[in-house]
Design brief:
Number of strands: 9
CATH architecture of the largest domain: 3-Layer(aba) Sandwich
CATH superfamily of the largest domain: NAD(P)-binding Rossmann-like Domain
Radius of gyration: 20 Å
CATH topology of the largest domain: Rossmann fold
Number of helices: 9
């Protein structure tokens, strides 16, 4: 496959393809057409073909797609057949909920540690992980080959923590702090604003109620 720029919109749809194809595979479905996949996912068949053509196509005209093959290839594109070691910065309610969510491990994302500066949380056990002080983070990251950090901390401290993470070699940040982070080139950031998603839902409800 050629090295070319893939749009974020296409990349954003890949996890949905992967999830739906996984369900089809589990149901024993071996082959599917772009139109059948369109009916399930509510994405046009043309869009599906365009998306897959960015990565070589995967299908045969008149035959469709082999479900298991397509599932595995998208998994490779997403990097899901590698193991990623994660730490959580922030042991509050959201941090604890993420640490306890087992489904991440099925995708190769392994939580190795959780950190906080709140003295009332230090030493607390969360799914067999003891909450450690931020002072221990740098050594822990290096000793445990951590490549992703999850930020569930107030936005006031997020930029400072992100800088420290970049300095110690973290390759990716999954950011739940309510601020968009600026980090050095080469460090990947996924900003997750929960309130934005909720406001989008409110907009869609409002549009439907108004006959939009």
């Amino acid at each position: 496959m050629e090295n070319k720029e893939i749009s974020q919109a296409v990349i954003g749809r890949l996890p949905r393809y992967f999830r739906f194809l996984g369900e089809l595979k589990d149901e024993g479905i071996e082959r599917i057409s772009s139109q059948e996949l369109s009916d399930i996912m509510q994405v046009t068949a043309s869009q599906i073909r365009q998306d897959f053509n960015n990565f070589g196509g995967f299908g045969q005209q008149g035959y469709g797609y082999k479900v298991e093959y397509l599932y595995e290839e998208i998994g490779k594109i997403l990097g899901l057949y590698k193991t990623h070691n994660l730490i959580i910065i922030g042991a509050g309610n959201l941090g604890q909920a993420l640490a306890n969510y087992m489904n991440f491990e099925r995708r190769g994302f392994l939580f190795k540690g959780i950190f906080d500066n709140n003295p009332h949380l230090l030493g607390k056990k969360i799914r067999n992980m003891e909450v450690k002080s931020m002072d221990e983070m740098e050594i822990f990251v290096k000793e445990n080959d951590i490549d992703i950090a999850v930020l569930t901390i107030p936005k006031a401290s997020a930029a400072e923590v992100a800088k420290k993470l970049s300095d110690i070699g973290i390759r990716g940040i999954w950011n739940f702090a309510h601020v968009d982070l600026n980090v050095p080139r080469g460090i990947q950031v996924e900003n997750v604003h929960l309130s934005d998603s909720l406001m989008k839902l409110a907009y869609n409800i409002n549009q439907f109620e108004n006959g939009g």
